[in-house]
Amino acid sequence: MKKLSTITFIISPIIISILILGAFVVDIEDWDIRKSWASMITFALIALFFIIFFVSLTYKVLKSSKTSWKKYSLIIFYAIIFLLTIPLFFKERDLWIKITTVISLVVILLLFFIKGYKWKKIFLSIHTILFSLISVIFFVVIIINNQKDHVSIDKQVLYESENGRQKIVLQGDGVWEKEYLVYFDIGIIRKRVKFEGQLGDGTWNVFNKKGNVVGIIAIKNGIEISRKNILAENTILVKTIDDIKGNIQKQDITFLFEGQYNFKDPIKLTNCKNLKFESIPSNIKTQITAENHPCFIILNSSNIDINDINMHGTNTSSMVDIYNSQNISILESLITGNSDKGISIDEFSSDIKISNNEFRNQKSFSIVAYSTNTKIEENHFYVNDRYNKSKAVFLQDKHYDIQTGIDLFENIILSYNGNWNNENNSNNVTLFGKTYFKHNGTIGDLFIFFNAYNIIEDFIESNYCSNCGCSSPYCYNFLEMISGYKLFIDSPTSEDDWCFYENDKPKFKFINPEFFKWLAHDLNLNPESLIQGVSYKTLFHTLFEDFIRNYYLAYKALTDQGQLPGLTTKYKDFNDSTNDYSELDLFLFHEYIDEIATDVDYIFYHDTNSSFDKNDLGEYYQDSDINLYETIVYTDKGSLTASDYSKIVSFWLRRSIDGSATIIYSTIVYYLKIYDKEWLKEVR
């Protein structure tokens, strides 16, 4: 015990000194904000080794007959504590720091001036026992009062009170960010509450995103009564647009915005370099308003940063135009208004970064760019306060690379998830070591079963931009990048006025025949091309043969029997007479499919309804009890469910109306001649 107490008595003050000194060197204030657990553990360890030190000292005082070496050991110990705390005595203005400094000095003086063995023994005994208890209490208080709801590690301090006891901290997950008021005491987070936007009375330091103090503000009754901006070298506080125009030809300049601006002219940067445009942190967010022109036009420029600026535009083609420029960043800004586009970038620019911005209510697209020169990530898109990315990003690349499209097709095939299909399905086949099925459904089913929407979105986000919103329907934006042709167009090539409601809103999407011409003649998928040793032709017959044949046969039946014009008229009447499009499949089955089918295996939702009278089914057959999902329709060349057949017929009716049917049919025939020649001869 004697040896152990000697070792702990010597080692404890050394460890305490290392911990305190290390905390100052590493910057314990940063721990307080970003790693509160680190400061808690540090102070807890200091308290623990205080306990060990004073317990060891108590044991030695009570057991030993000599006091001189203990006297000088304590003097050295308290001298170290005094030297470590005296710099903070005036700087921190913390009560505990002051008490520690004063106690250290008092103990040192008493140890020097107390005379006589008896009084020294009494003083040392009382001192060591008392401070052993205080250390235990200190340790317990640290553990109990530690704030478990820590501040996020990667967020910044926005404001700090003059005495450093309160800080406003921004934290969140990057999507839902919130501000919190954090209270500190002796370096430990004691309380954290949601910040409601009103600073307390007193003086506050204002920080920028880099952690630098950029201003000092005084608050009284929740109102800012004074502000002192602390501007770094080569920094200009913008008051009018002339402050920008007069300085943009300089380099390494930072323009700071504060408050509201309504510029009659755009901020035009021509042949400029190394400029930054930022907001001063403030309760009132900076906003630049532009009418009939962009906020920024960047031409032949490089190294331009636009950060944390609100831009609001009305009646303008875009809010930011970038032409033939390099290394341009637009970060953490808000872009609102009824502009046609948010940010527009031409094909001659490069190294453009658009990240962590919020876009609201652009008419066309929030970002219009080229995938080869722009990095787009973690932006957020809203239309009428609802999150919406259907028209978030438009990538303008034309004729990107046909091989890119082929690689994507192969990626979809190889990423197929066999769990979609029932294991007992007789159509199952094995390819690439996986279980697939021979698809016998519709185009919509095809994309779902092969998870194509997600694969396309993942493919684009990993290669071009995150959060592009390019996956909706059939990712037509990406298809245009590859082919140079839109899959969907604004008006039907048939010029049929029925395609629009009275408010000019289209009744369905119109397919572009030019895309299918490209698909047939320019893409020219070689049947002998291989995916991991399996030819395209094998894939066709193994997976897609029934699917393509069903679409071919359905259109052929419609045209050969001359029923396409009459059924199209009935289809239009149905759509004009009811808003319940869920009954369209029932209507088409009873009106057409049941009439032309070779045979039908009927399945009804109720067992008692084994037959039906067409006169009792309602005007559009809406009261029919037939189960289209399980009813099987037989044709001369195969079979499929009544639901799938109805959807295929509906597809061809829409294509007949918008004028794309003959081109799509020709494309199917083109590939059947290459991949399924013998079958095509037979059915013709």
Description:
This protein is an alpha/beta fold. Helix content is 41%, strand content 24%. The protein is built from 18 helices and 36 strands. The chain has a 7-stranded antiparallel β-sheet with strand order 4-3-2-1-5-6-7, with helices on one face. Strands 8-9-12-15-18-21-24 form a 7-stranded parallel β-sheet, with no helix packed on it. Strands 10-13-16-19-22-25-26 form a 7-stranded mixed β-sheet, with no helix packed on it. Strand 32 (530-531) and strand 33 form a beta hairpin. Helix 14 (564-577) runs antiparallel to helix 15 (584-596) and helix 14 (564-577) packs across helix 16 (642-658). The longest helix is centred in the N-terminal third of the chain and has 29 residues, at 117-145. The radius of gyration is 38 Å and the shape is elongated. The termini are far apart. The relative contact order is 0.04. The mean pLDDT is 80.
